[in-house]
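Why do we care about 3D structure at all? Because function follows from shape, and shape follows, mostly, from sequence. That is the central idea of this module. The next example makes it concrete: a single protein chain, its amino acid sequence, and then its structure expressed as C-alpha cells.
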Amino acid sequence: MSIYMTETEQLEAIKKWWKRYNNIITVVLSIILLSVAGYKYWHWHQEKMTQQASNAYEHMMLAYSNQDNKSVRGYVNQLTTEYGDTVYADAARLTLAKLLVVRENYDKAEKQLEYVAGHSKNSAFRQISKIRLARLLASLKSFDKALAELDTLENTAYLPEVNEIKGDIYSAKGQYLQAVDFYRKAINQVQTHGMGNLFLEMKTNELVALTKSTRIEIKPSQAG
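And the structure:
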C-alpha cells in the first residue's frame, strides 16, 4: 500500500481521527479554559479583597489616631471576620491588643497576641506578636511564660530585640549575670550591623556595677 495519501484520503483520515477523539479534546480544552478563567477570577477576587482590606485598615488607623476606640473595634471586627486571611487582619489584632493593654484588659490583649503568634502566615507578624506578648507577660511577672514565647525565633532580624527582652526578664527576676549575658549578646548583634544602642549599653553597665557591688556586700557576711 502506498504511503502517500490523496487529499481525499487525508481528509477522511482527519474526519475519522476527529470523530474518535473530539469528545476527549473538547473536555480537555474546556478544563483548560475553565482553569484559566477560574485563576483570573481568583486573582481578581484576591486583589479586590486586598484593596478592601487595605481601605478598612487605613480607616482603622485613622480612628486609632483620633482615639475613636469604638470605631477601631468595629474595623478590627470587619478585618478579622471578612479579611481574616490578609496581613491586615493580623495588624488589626496587634492594634487591638495595644488598645486593650492601655485599658489594662490584659487577658483579652494576651489572647489577641497569642492568635497572631499561632496563626499568622507572616513570620514577621508572628515574631512581633511573640515579642509583645513576652513584654506583656513580663510586666505581669509571668517570667517563665514570657521566656517561653521567645524560645522560637521566627525571624533572625529580631534577634537583638529578643535577647534584650530576655535580659530585661532576667533582670526583673534578679538574675543579673544572666541578664548581662543576654544584654551583651544583643549589643554584639546590633554592632554587627554597624549600629549601636546607647540605652542598652547603659542598662548593661548599670547591671555590671550592681553585680559587682552585690558581690562586695556579700563577702563580709560570708566571711563572718
